[in-house]
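Two proteins, back to back. First:
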Amino acid sequence: MRILGQRLRTLRLEKKMRQEDLAREIGISKSAIGMYERGEREPSLILLREIADFFRVSADFLLGRSDRASFPSNLRRKSDPPGADGNLKNFLTRKDLHWDQIPLAKKELRAVKELMEVVVRERSAHYEVNPDHIKKADRRNKRG
């Protein structure tokens, strides 16, 4: 099961995590992570699923049965809340957002979205960004 260990280590390092960090996140010992990475021990099926979910990859990828590290971006688990894909824009569509337990109104969330669009527009000068995304945001703001 050496491929599992290699992929686990690679995924952990990509997230700039130490073994201790990963162990704490998934609720096991640091030594267990080390043994998985060295191929000295295999995780249970339940733990394998937890590891796959944490890294947002399939168990088949971890086991070496697939070389596709993640699910296609247009697929999402039904149980995933908006924004689980890491996209702040999607996250801000959630109805249960709060700031220190103070609920945020639609108007306040709209202000946050507009602020982020300004930030993205300014940063796009330094990164290669598809200009269509910015044009769509501008059209939405004019309507809104």
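And the second protein:
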Amino acid sequence: MRRFSQRNSLVTLSEINITPLLDLAFVLLIIFVITTPLLEQGINLKLPPGGQADTRKLDKNDIRVVEISQSGQYMLGGKFMTVDQVAAAIISDFRRNPR
């Protein structure tokens, strides 16, 4: 019989089998790939119930455009106004024609 020498045992220890480590890495990778899409990402919202779309045609005379310049001036219908004047004009237009 042959005796084990110190030299042979060092050679044996230097050859580590990494196959089980690779198997474990692939199993973990597969688990993460499968479980990641199952995680819910989002927020809970209560959406209003659906209904019929408003199919009425708009009259161009009923449309009001308020323009705001870079300097902060308001214009409605081509006239410069203050915020209070714009609000009063829109309210009076709505009272005349609530459509």
